[in-house]
Amino acid sequence: MIRNALIIAGASFVLMLGCFAGVAALAGPVILNEGWTIPFDRVENGAVRRTHLNVNGAKASPVVSRQLAWTGEALIVDLPIDVTYVQGPVAKVEISGPRDVVDRLRIADGRIHMTDDEGDHRDLYADSLTIDRQGIRIHSNADQTRIVVTAPNVSSFKLDGSGDLEIQAYNQPALTLALNGSGDVNAVGKTTGLVVAAAGSGDAELDDLRALNAEIAISGSGNADISASNEVKIAISGSGDVNMGLQPTSETSTISGSGSVRHNY
């Protein structure tokens, strides 16, 4: 019986390889030249979402770039798209990605959003499987979209979505971060006063941000890495941890959750 099962398994494997070879021979040119779409469902936060797996050919959405004007001192991001902030003298927002996404992005009152914003941004999660001479790559519309905000004096950042925020070359008296989503924040630079309020699952990776004073409040599951040298106040009511890279002159900690303060100096 075992011998018969092995024979059947081997024959099935050979048949499968033959089927794949036949599909590749017959459909390969069509896939590369015209594209092929396979619909499938994915489950996110208990909800079933209908998306498509695209083998991109000639019908792929072209990658475009555009620039938007920027004014203000606060940046709000609630999209599943990564955003980079660069402190610079000329205020502007540079966007690149698939045209059907880039053309719908807008900025109003410091908030980056889409013109047909419905809250779930389901089309941004649509995966694409690209087959070409370089191999096979899987990515989403959100993965292909890049947003770079350049401004001289943005000092308040709010992250409500799943996209990550990178802050480069920061040098201002104050920095306020509010993390309510699952996106992470990474900051490099220096500031006098750092304030972090984390209620989501995203991490605040601030060990390369040199601060004089810091106030950290964690009520979610995200962690915070900080480097403050003078006065540090920490309040933890969630499960997140605070990792301290420098020994401050003064430290006050209040912990009522399962999180902890770790001294890594």
From the 3D coordinates, which CATH architecture of the largest domain would you assign?
3 Solenoid
Strand content: over 45%
Task: Show unreliable segments.
Answer: 37-53
- Give the integer mean of the pLDDT values: 82
End-to-end distance, in Å? 65 Å
Order of helices and strands: HEEEEEEHEEEEHEEEEEEEEEE
Structural class: alpha/beta
Rg (CA only): 24 Å
CATH topology of the largest domain: Pectate Lyase C-like
Shape: globular
Helix content: 10-25%
Q: What's the structural domain tally?
A: 2
Number of helices: 3
Quaternary form: single chain
Number of strands: 20
Give a short account of the largest sheet: 16 strands, mixed
Quick synopsis:
The chain has 265 residues and is of the alpha/beta class. The protein has helices spanning 2-34, 99-102, 141-144, and strands at residues 36-44, 47-55, 63-68, 74-77, 83-87, 92-98, 105-108, 111-114, 127-132, 135-140, 146-151, 156-159, 165-179, 185-198, 204-218, 224-228, 231-236, 242-244, 250-255, 261-263.
Write a structural description.
By secondary structure, the protein is of the alpha/beta class. The chain folds into two domains: 30 residues; 174 residues, Pectate Lyase C-like (3 Solenoid), CATH 2.160.20.120. Helix content is 15%, strand content 52%. The longest helix has 33 residues. The radius of gyration is 24 Å and the shape is globular. The termini are far apart.
